Amino acid sequence: MDEVPQAYANEVQNSIDKLKIKYSDNRFILSCRIAAYQSSMAGFTTVELADFDDEQIERFIHNWFRSELDIDNNVAEACWAKLSQPEYKASLELAQTPLLLTFLCITYDAYQDFPEQRSQLYSEALDILLRKWDAQKRIKRDKIYANWNINLELALLSELAHDFFTRDELFFTKESILEYIQVFLSDTAGNVKFIDIEAVLGAIAIQQGILVERAADIYSFSHLTLQEYLTAKYISQDNRRIEKLIADHLTDERWQEIFLLVAGLKDDAGELLKLMEKATQKLTNTNKLEQLLIWAQSIANDTSPYFNPVDTRAIAIAYALSYNNADTKALAYALAKVKALANAYPLTNAYPIGNVYAYALVNVYPLKYFIEYARWSEEFQIYRDVNYSQLISKLEELEQQIPNNSAGREVRKAFALRIIQTWLEAFHLKPEMVDLSKQEIAALDNYFYGNLLMVKCKNAAVRVSKETWQNIESRMLLPVKPLANK
Q1: What is the DSSP string of 256-290?
Q2: Which of 85, 123, 227 is nearest to 462 (CA)?
Q3: Whole-prediction pTM value?
Q4: Rounded to whole angstroms, what are the CA distances from 351 to 48, 327, 442?
Q5: Other Cβ atoms closer than 10 A to 461
Q6: What radius of gyration do the chain's Cα atoms show?
Q7: Residues whose CB is less than 8 angstroms from the CB of residue 236 and which lie 6 or more positions away in sequence, other chains included
Q8: In DSSP terms, which residues pair with 219 in a beta bridge?
Q9: pLDDT for 345
Q10: Rounded to an integer, what distance in angstroms lies between the CA atom of residue 376 and that of residue 381?
Q11: Is 318 in a helix, a strand, or coil?
Q12: Nearest Cα residue to 108 out of 132, 69, 78
């Protein structure tokens, strides 16, 4: 489903619904990458495919290196032994995905070694495919174009991948590709009337398998990952393209992999991260959101011995948000982003706390979650200026006053309000501070996403100087205008 262009997503879903109704005795499976998954479809059970475990990775490798020459030289054993070494931990993590494990096997076959970053892995695997194909003379230079070479082809594929990805076109007609190749070569080779354009397409599609014909005269890249990598390669070569990427797509999850690959393709991703930080700070563009960040800065303990300051700020904001319409998808999503950013305490209790009203209507009050969180945050010194003993005492007192099952709806709602009011007062929060509109919740969601994307890009980068990252991280989840006195 993640390879369906957004413009056709609803149409495809409707067609699937009609298909499963018409053939109700059949079994249907839909697949989608986790990053692109939005919501379940009626009648389907959502499951997540597990990553390959070590045993499956080893079996895959033995199935890959099964030629007589490989067996005689124990290539599979040597490959697995190397991948199992501690210094190749990052490569072993890549191997949990079948496609990346395929690339690892291709790369190991050529170099007897593994790259550390995904971007490097894609680069080397693609280079191997192109060079191996060229070395075996699968392209007849005298019949296509005398000056045709790997670098030229890579430039063509990168530009094509980028332009079609930008238009959200993952499938394209033969006519559109031929026109694209002709324009590209006209700008590169000059006179193209002696170049067989169809032969160029045929060489790329038929011989290499980088482009494949999905239906009659309908093509796509053989895997979305290849299109994403080539798109990132095209962008990474020009700073103006990087600036446009950030300006146009910072909060668009469809472009998340592009950002990660661009970070990995740069020798130093520091400037990329600085530009991302500048754009992310502009996302909290209302006074209320700025006030929420100011509150988090004032109450989050930046000297906790257990978590760094950005973690405590993230946890504080997550719990502040959990009181504002936590049953909305946007907020649940924002909470997940904060949890991932903090990478600390599992914030699973935020959802029950946020749904205190819904719980109250069925006479279930999640006071135990409030008490548990209060004790945990005190132990790990998440906040400052919170009277925990008084808070816990008040919550325990409320536990003894829970309305019975015969209490009316208004009584139960009023009691739920007492719980929330007690909690907000303890953490110096006013109801209006967390009474956010849907637009403000969406803005915060984008803000969290931008910060989390910076963390992911830093992890995907070949290099980011320690000083650059420390400076960026120290400013994360802070108001644009810092507090005068803390």
Answers
A1: HHHHHHHHHHSS--HHHHHHHHHHHHTT--SHHHH
A2: 123
A3: 0.77
A4: 22, 8, 18
A5: 23
A6: 27
A7: 242, 261, 262, 265, 266
A8: 172, 213
A9: 44
A10: 8
A11: helix
A12: 78
